[in-house]
Amino acid sequence: MRIIAVTDIHGRGNKVKELLEHSKEQEPDLILIAGDITHFRGREAAYNILKEFINFGKPFYAVMGNCDGRDVLELLEELHISLHDKRVEFNGVGIVGIGGSNITPFSTIWEFSEEEIWEILTKNYQDGDIVLSHVPPKNTKVDKTFVGTHAGSKSLRKFIEEKQPPLVICGHIHEAIGIDEIGKTIIVNPGPLSRGHYATIDFDEEKKKVKDITLEKF
User: Fold this and answer.
1) How many angstroms separate the CA atoms of 35 and 184, rounded?
2) CB under 8 Å to 26, separation ≥6 — which residues?
3) Closest CA to 198 of 73, 28, 81, 1
4) Which of 41, 58, 134, 193 lies most in the core, judged by the most C-beta atoms within 10 Å?
5) Domain containing 10 — which CATH number?
6) What is the DSSP letter of 20?
7) How many domains does the chain have?
8) Cα–Cα distance for residue pair 200/203, rounded to 1 Å
C-alpha cells in the first residue's frame, strides 16, 4: 500500500494542487493529512483545501492541527474523513488519529493535556495500527524546534514505547523534517506542505510494516 503523507498545509491551496500533480505518477492508495489544513481559519477555508483532495479521487483521512478553527473538526466529520479520536480500517490496516497538539506557550486553538492525548490514543489503538498525529513524540529528531527545544508530546512518546505501532505520521514542528525510530516504530515528519514537503510511504499490509519512506520536495 502506498501512502502520501502531508501536514501543515496552512491554507496554501497552490501547494496542494502541485502535490496532487506530482502524486499522479506515484499512484497512491491513500493520502493522510496530519493537520494544520488552514492558518487559523475555519471550515470554509478548510473546505477550499480539502475539495482539491476530494476532486483528486483517492481515499484520504485527516486530523485537525492546533492552528485549525474550532469548526474544522466538524467539517472533517461531515465529510467522513476525520480520524481525530477515531479508528478506521483501510486495506486491512487500522489507522488511529489524534489532532491538535500538546499544550503550547501560544494558546493556539486545539491543544490537549498529556492526559487527554494518552486517553485518546489508548482508547482507539489496536495492535499493528498506523498512528496519524499532528504533534510529534517528545525528544526525537522530528520534534526539535529551531532553537533546540523538543516540543513534542510526552504521552505520545510513552505510548510509542509501550505499544510499538509500526508507523507514526506527524507534523507541527515545521523545521523538524525527518525520519526517526523508537524501538520498532518508524516516525516521520514529512515537513510542511506549505513549503512543498511531503512523504511517500510504502507499507506492507500483511506484515504491518514500513517497507520504504521517501521524503519529497517540489
Assistant:
1) 25
2) 2, 4, 200
3) 28
4) 134
5) 3.60.21.10
6) H
7) 1
8) 10
Residues 6+ apart with CB under 8 A from 3: 28, 29, 30, 31, 32, 169, 200, 201, 202, 203
Would you state the pLDDT for residue 174?
98
d(CA 181, CA 179): 7
Give the residue numbers spanning the domain of 139: 2-217
How is residue 184 written as a grid cell? 520498532
- Nearest 5 degrees, angle CA 60-CA 63-CA 65? 135
Tell me: the pLDDT tens digits for 152-194? 999 999 999 999 999 999 999 999 999 999 999 999 999 999 9
For residue range 10-37, list pLDDT tens digits in order: 999 999 999 999 999 899 999 999 999 9
Beta-bridge partners for 168: 131, 187
